Amino acid sequence: MKYQSKYNPLFILLILVLPGVFTGCKKYLDEDNRSNYTQENFFQTADQAQASINNLYASLRTITDGTGTYGESPYMMLEFPTGIASTEVGQSQFNNTLRTLSANADNNYFYVWWANSYNAIANANLAIERIPGINMDEAQKKRMLGEAAFFRAFYYFHLVRIYGDVPLLLKSVNASSPELYPERSSQASVYDAIVADLLTAEAAGLPTADVTGRLNVGAVKSLLASVYLTMAGYPLEKKENYQKAADKANEVINSGSYRLFATYPELRNKANKNLGEFIFQNQYQVGINTTSVTQAFLPRSRKITKFSDEVGAVTPAPEFYNSYETGDLRTKEQQYYYSSYVSVLTGQPVNFGGQYIFKFFDNEAATTAQSDLNWTFLRYPEVLLIYAEASNEVGGPTPAAFNAVNLIRTRAQLPALTGLSQSAFREAIWREKYHELAYENKVWFDMVRTRKVYNLANGGFNDFVGHAFPGGQVLTAKYLLFGIPTREINNNKKLSQNPGW
Fold first, then answer.
1. Strands 315-316 and 375-379
2. 143/151 Cα distance (integer angstroms)
3. Which residues pair with 463 in a beta bridge?
4. For the chain, what percent of residues have pLDDT higher than 90?
5. Contact between residue 143 and residue 205 where contact means Cβ atoms under 8 Å apart
6. Which fold has domain 1-178+477-501?
7. What is the 3-state secondary structure (H, E, C) of 118-148?
8. What is the rounded distance in angstroms from the CA atom of residue 437 to the CA atom of residue 458?
9. Integer Cα distance of 343 and 323 in angstroms
10. Which one, 281, 344, 347, 402, has least CB within 10 Å?
């Protein structure tokens, strides 16, 4: 009998938490507590509906959870093929083969992204199907359905950019379903489904803002702006979506719900979770669920914290650090990067001999070895840059577009941009996105969307195919998509492999 993975998208999946623990930020941080409920006898009450939605929030942790060994984590998959990230962990096969552009479809990251995404999509499908039949407050029901639609769109947006054509499953599947072994659907149809889900979420009566970490309408609009911008680029090239991206980003800007923090340390201040420029975050809390992100970015084995293992999994490529403009505050000590730290063990400064990523450093965790710094999926600077880029593509530079970029540059203590041509402004925006959103899982998606890669030596942009990284690795068309996991192709003969994998 052929073995079927429990994460295979061909099967209905629902991880249920016990009824009675359903509301508030702390609640969906709880570990999954599995019960004897089935989809047939669950979804009877409002509390059970809320439990299913809470589980969708909890699914976000799979993106920053560890996988395999040697400090590997799914979000790292999107950093190493960019050329701006290196590592101090020689044993990490998954990371190193992506960094050297020598990966194959057996890379475990490809399977983890696929399996975890379809797991969440299956749970969202069940929520969307079953919640309408529950006798409960209609406004609450509408909000929950909006949340479920958002999460389905969120995961499909990752899948379609990572793998291209993917199975589009918009209803639950069981052993007798025709979709038990689905074929890949076109990227255009997947994007249509994503937009439809986000429009549903946008109209679901979600709050304007929510400091508990639950979904708000600003997050929906921000993701929709990103989707439209991506659809305007490669491979769909639906240029009319530049205007839609600009309009949606401008709605977020004009809402007044978000602002840039005055200083970079505020990004690491846990009192600011879900506030200010944080639009959508993954929630952590010591005593409930902690994150390994801070530990992963620590300089390897320098004994500056109480973590038993300082991993050094992701480090900045020196050429990327050197590509920042002279005087950029982000490059100053303990802003986005750092080169030394006073050890909490010895009280003595430790010089690293190079730059490391301070962006995700948790000061409290240095002494407790437990971090609950949130991971951010959507941040206000990205919305500003989406607006600037999209509006520039529609009609060239405008004062509003310059202002959006200059808000970010002013905080970095850089001179304002002005008087640039459309093409010069386009590249200035791309550079700003590299420097502001580095190591936040944005760069690789932009490389694929624009088919352009930042030349770290001269500050320009090269074509994706044929671009050589400082280490000598050369990007090929193969890396415009990642490989469909080998085990999924072995399990479902209707799945074809992406070119080159």
1. unpaired
2. 13
3. 452
4. 88
5. yes
6. 1.25.40
7. HHHHHHHHHHHHHHHHCCCCHHHHHHHHHHH
8. 20
9. 29
10. 347
Cβ pair 483, 105 in contact under 8 A: yes
Residue 114 has pLDDT above 80, yes or no: yes
Residue 108 clears pLDDT 80, i.e. is over it: yes
Q: Distance between CA 118 and CA 137 in Å, rounded? A: 29
Q: Give per-residue burial for 325-345: e unless 16+ CB within 10 Å, then b.
A: beebbbbeeebbbbbbbebee
Helix (H, G, I), strand (E, B) or coil at 333: strand
Please, which residues have CB within 8 angstroms of residue 54's CB and are 6 or more apart in sequence?
A: 17, 22, 27, 28
Which helix (H) or strand (E) segment holds residue 338: the answer is strand 337-342
Please count the other Cβ atoms lying within 10 Å of the Cβ belonging to residue 55: 22
User: Are the C-beta atoms of 149 and 198 separated by less than 8 Å?
Assistant: yes
Number of CB atoms found within 10 A of residue 138's CB = 8
Comparison of pLDDT for 414 and 36, the residue scoring more: 414
**Residue of 122, 120, 72, 134 lying closest to 99 (CA atoms):** 72
Q: What values do phi and psi take at 105, rounded to 5?
A: -70, -5
Q: Kindly indicate the confidence band of residue 13, based on its pLDDT and cuts at 50, 70 and 90.
A: very low
CB 74 within 8 A of CB 112: yes
Distance, CA of 129 to CA of 42 (rounded, Å): 12
Are 155 and 149 in contact, with CB atoms under 8 Å apart?
A: no
Q: Please choose, from the candidates 76, 163, 80, 79, the residue with its C-alpha nearest in 3D space to the C-alpha of residue 118.
A: 163
The reported pLDDT for the residue numbered 37 is 57
Sign of CA dihedral 266, 77, 8, 292: negative
Weakest mean pLDDT among 1-10, 25-34, 318-327, 391-400: 1-10
Which residue do the tokens 């299956």 mark?
Answer: 122
Q: What Å distances lie between residue 311 and 90, 91, 302, 457, CA to CA?
A: 11, 11, 10, 29
Concatenating the DSSP letter of every residue in 392-446 gives HHHHS--HHHHHHHHHHHHHTT-PPP-S--HHHHHHHHHHHHHHHSTTSS-HHHH
| 3-state SS assignment for residue 154 | helix
CA 365 remoteness from chain centre: 23
Domain residue extents for the chain: 1-178+477-501, 292-371
d(CA 476, CA 247): 34
Structure token pair of residue 169: 């499953």
Percent of the chain with pLDDT over 70: 92
Q: Where are the alpha helices (DSSP H) in 164-240?
A: 187-202, 217-232
- pLDDT of amino acid 31: 47
Any idea what the Cα angle at residue 130 is, between residues 127 and 131, rounded to 5°? 75
Please state the length of the chain: 501
- Residues 178 and 443: their CA atoms lie apart, in Å, by 38
155, 193 Cβ separation under 8 angstroms: no
